[in-house]
């Protein structure tokens, strides 16, 4: 059976590890890497989209990162229980016309016993910003091609 440590039940430290691992994966902008953290039948709500399964997750992420260019994300642990973690996040991106946005959101995660996420609920709001108002000024990281 596939596992993704740390496993539930979570502690403060293992919850922070899960959040950091998710931040690192999402900042890679690699749909395969991100989708590997979810169960094969994972249930998702992202904004107004509802879908399930790794293949749908990968399709969603490919679409997302074709639109949200130079995406950079920061996640913060909000709370946790035995097999659930809540996160607040912000990310910045620009569209193909060069307009910048900061997206603010909250996620609720539920994990299977093997440490893979079986449910993700995300609420997100986008705010237009000026490029000069960006918070996340990391160097551009190349996206790995397959």
TrEMBL record:
Stored InterPro entries: DUF1348 (IPR009783), NTF2-like_dom_sf (IPR032710)
Taxonomic path: Bacteria, Pseudomonadati, Nitrospirota, Nitrospiria, Candidatus Troglogloeales
Protein name in the entry: Nuclear transport factor 2 family protein
Pfam families linked: DUF1348 (PF07080)
Signal peptide: none
């Amino acid at each position: 059976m596939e596992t993704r440590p740390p496993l539930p039940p979570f502690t403060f430290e293992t919850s922070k590890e899960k959040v950091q691992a998710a931040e690192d994966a999402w900042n890679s902008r690699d749909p395969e890497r991100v989708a590997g953290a979810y169960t094969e039948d994972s249930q998702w709500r992202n904004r107004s989209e509802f879908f399930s399964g790794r293949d749908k997750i990968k399709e969603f992420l490919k679409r997302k990162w074709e639109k949200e260019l130079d995406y950079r994300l920061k996640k913060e642990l909000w709370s946790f229980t035995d097999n659930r973690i809540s996160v607040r996040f912000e990310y910045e991106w620009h569209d193909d016309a060069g307009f910048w946005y900061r997206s603010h959101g909250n996620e609720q995660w539920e994990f299977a016993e093997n440490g893979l996420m079986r449910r993700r609920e995300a609420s997100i709001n986008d705010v237009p910003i000026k490029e000069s108002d960006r918070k996340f000024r990391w160097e551009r990281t190349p996206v790995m091609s397959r």
